[in-house]
Queue: 2 jobs
Job 1
Amino acid sequence: MTTRRLPVYILADVSGSMQGTPIESVKSGIRQLHRDLLGDPQAIESAYLSIITFGNSAQQTVPLTEVAMFNPPELTAGGTTNFGDGLRMLIDSFDRELVRTTADQKGDWRPLVFILSDGAPTDVDWPMYAQQLRERRPANIIAVACGDQADVNVLKQVTENVILMQEMSPDAFRAFFSFVSASVKQTSQKVGSVADGSAITLPPPPPGITIVP
Amino acid sequence: MSDAQSAASPVGSKDESLSSAEPPQPKPATWTVKSPVEPWCPPEVEAAIAQVVGHETSDRLRARQSLVAGSHGADVDESALSQIYELHTGAWRVIGAARRGRRHAHVGAWCEDAVFAHLGESRGVLVVADGAGSAAWSRLGSAIAVDMVGAALRDAPLLDSASMNRAIEAAVDALRQCASAMNVAPRTLRTTLLAVAWEPSNSGGVRLVTTQVGDGVLVLAHSDGRITQPAAGDAGEWSGEVHCFLPDDETMSRARAATAVHDVADLVAVVLVTDGVEDALYPFAKHAPAVLSQLVHGASVPLGNLTAQPVTPSVLASGSPGLTLLEWLAFEKRGENDDRTLAVALHHSASHVITPWAPSASA
């Protein structure tokens, strides 16, 4: 590999409660994010996108793909909220797809992960994977709690960066994906920040989205 | 503010040699070139800094400000936005250039790298710095740091570890005081730093003192072709992760650990690069012989895995070696669009000791 990548993973809840407007809004948000990044030359040259979904089980719907070759996926909602399998798939994707720095090769940029969930986990394994992510800090993770049924405390166990999207309207999802796009662009612009595990600097959240302290 | 399509017109693109069996390449990114939007150093900031850094550094910052103030024309002249040094004595030739990267040019931001060079009758000094991308005033931090360290090394009675560490300490103190005078946090001036000073040694060779805080690379080239790297750069598991910048609390412990004195009998060249060059040509120590060869003999074929590289003459034969180096720094590699700085000291023996580079010899 000769290009250093900014890996961007979107881990989306596709459980039954996301059926209808929410899942359509997520799909449209991913298309909007893709279009937006295609207009940014640094993102074209370095950002790589992957979509992982979790319902009854997790699947990597789109493997890590450069922006110019990315095809927004079809997503369908249904089933339970196997959050643990989603986190397991995320960790597994890191191990399979990411390149770390060695004496002979510069590694990827620290990955950016956006987790969307509108409910609470239905599995029992998620705390184990949440602990791994929190302790190993393999990525800058931003979790968004969608609507008033999302369990903020669960997301807080994965990352300190939790934001709350009060409504699940198409406008709210649109605003969230604009925030994702701004975060990706800002991260690719402001590379060279510290690696000491301190909180990353996020762009200001749009109206309707608040950072959970 | 002017706005133009990417000004670089590289030749020797490797794309031309792609075989038909390879998958089609996605459409390349479209870069624009814009003059900086903000002043390099607003008057109130300049006044605050002047109280701290003394006349010499203050005058240099003001001179740089007046130089770049005229760069808001219809055509963006990158050389007016860049720092260039070209100095020579009988024994040594020193050339340094800091070039704004495409990411900064695209959004109308300043180059955040800085370079300082001095070449006296017996002593030479080179300092380069890369202001942290996440720090709002890092372009001033890097400029202040190279100037303070460079002047301290130039004026030090002796070249030893203590002189180097005092020079770094002076820069750290100045950066902290400047931050206080500007009423901003010290981290807003964060910068890396690489420094070397040299003079003839008693044994007939060259005595050098080197140090490093943050990433970037400093290498020494020897007459038998060896490249040595006195200190390892600051690197993490992921790209671009620097753990300590000037003027962080850990700066002096990091600098003291990296500072070293060398007595080298066969020194041909010293090269310092910021990460904008290092990352595109990584590991730099491996590519350094080819880089030196291109600088000394001219560049006609892209180095290593660069996408494209301008054809440039030898810096030794060029009438404007600093501008030639600036042009050399315009090489292209996908995703590598950071500011780039390279400073080199070439001994007079370099032109016959360093051999021409052939692509097959490249990594």
Job 2
Amino acid sequence: MARALIHMPATARRGEVIEIRALIGHPMETGYRPGADGKIVPRDIIRKFVCRYNGEQVFGAELHQAVSANPYIGFFTVATESGTLEFTWEGDNGFAQTEKMNLTVSAP
Amino acid sequence: MKRREILAAGAGLALLALVRPATATPEEMAAAIKGFTGGAAPKEGKVAFDIAQLIDNGNAVPVTIKVDSPMSAADHVSAIAIFNEKNPHTEVAVFTLGARAGRAEVSTRIRLATSQRLIAIARMSDGSYWSKSVDVIVTLAACIEGEAP
């Protein structure tokens, strides 16, 4: 289980644009780099990141080798209703992790 | 070497720099962009690419891409892609957005193997493509050790 950090406000007014910053611990091994024994280290990266807001996808990302280790993604979404934001990372070697955050939306 | 020879050589160099095309994109990057746009040629504009011009460490380069768009249901950015010219792999990342994003802005950290040109392309909901390219200088390379192309 990799360590994931998600920064976002816990409360927001309806219609407000909120910033979400998500970071996960992962080496993002490119598959181009020789290891200590001189052999190429096999590729091991996160391929996909998805953010779902009450089950509906609001943001997605397809990552490649050129994304840094411990991939960080910052994006925005509109606070529409109280609920759960679900963050999913998927990658090579069956890597999959899901984190949940709650958001309380008040009247504007 | 005589002074006039040096002067002539200098003039030749300046001419070389002038005739070199400004948009010299290697074929792989052009092919990857074509794969993303489906053959359409992206237009310059609307996209802002925020990255340091001189990069000390190519292992983690912060980038922010903003697109000028109202982000309404009728007119929004549906995807943003980043491509590079000289890393071993041309594609960097493809972000999928929608009207619910509220603001067409994404930021991440990327690796750069060497000094090169980067391009960000935004796909709008009406099917048009807009791009912005930047040239950056990298002092410490990522990805490959000692054999940057």
